[in-house]
Write a structure and sequence with these properties.
Fumarate Reductase Iron-sulfur Protein, Chain B, domain 2, five-stranded mixed sheet, two-stranded antiparallel sheet, EC 1.3.5.1, 4 iron, 4 sulfur cluster binding
């Protein structure tokens, strides 16, 4: 099989190029394993850690679609492997997600005027809310959903993308959070999402139901608060 792999070193290269590497196909081979075999023939900079959809570090674009390389099977034939779009390329397939992760960390941070009391901490809250919070915690911040999002790619200034919206939703469900999360969601472009479901399609964490559940909950809350799409 032949791999066409993106190569770019910003310290020395004026533009990106591609290297073509022939490797032997093996049954049940993953994209990550293919990259590793290619690396044995020609140096390729890439990132990975967990081998099991837990860290999100191995996200790449495989034949035009964002994937986690560690869990994505590769077929025998010719394939193109590139870095995730929308981020600065540090070297070859390694990208800088620090700016996106900083924004996510800010959104995930709980907002409260005073610390929780012991009694509040021990309070059991609504089961359905707990289920949504638990589902969102599967997110590895791989940013594949945002890379796939047509609304974000069309105009990132009017929609923050699924990853950031998910972080806002996490605290919206949090009964202990005192932030204006519905307003934050609307200001972040909640109504500019076209509900196409590409984020859910590409996400390796199938426990998260953005379009069918989470975005629906946020939009209903926004409408109830007088922040509907017609506002």
């Amino acid at each position: 099989m032949k791999l066409e792999i993106y190569k770019y070193n910003p310290d020395v290269d004026n533009s990106a190029s591609y290297v073509y590497v022939n490797i032997d196909y093996k049954d049940k081979m993953t994209v990550l394993e293919a990259i590793q075999f290619a690396h044995e023939k020609t140096p390729i900079h890439f990132d990975y850690s967990c081998h099991g959809r837990a860290c999100g570090r191995c996200s790449v674009v495989y034949d035009g679609t964002p994937v986690l390389a560690c869990i994505t099977p590769i077929t025998d034939g010719d394939h193109t492997i590139e870095p995730m779009k929308g981020h600065t390329v540090l070297r070859d397939l390694i990208i800088d997600k620090s700016e996106a992760h900083a924004d996510l960390s800010q959104r995930y941070r709980r907002t409260r005027a005073v610390n929780l009391t012991e009694e509040q901490i021990e309070t059991i809250y609504d089961t359905s809310v707990a289920e949504q919070i638990s589902a969102i915690e599967w997110c590895t911040r791989c940013m594949m959903c945002t890379a796939m999002c047509p609304a974000y790619k069309a105009n990132p200034s009017t929609y923050v993308g699924p990853a950031a919206m998910l972080a806002t939703a996490y605290r919206y469900y949090d009964p202990y959070d005192e932030g204006s999360r519905v307003n934050e969601a609307v200001q972040s472009g909640l109504w500019n999402c076209i509900m196409c479901g590409q984020c859910d399609y590409v996400c390796p964490q199938k426990e998260i139901e953005r379009v069918s559940q989470i975005w629906k909950d946020l939009r209903e809350a926004a409408t109830d608060a007088g922040l509907g799409n017609e506002s």
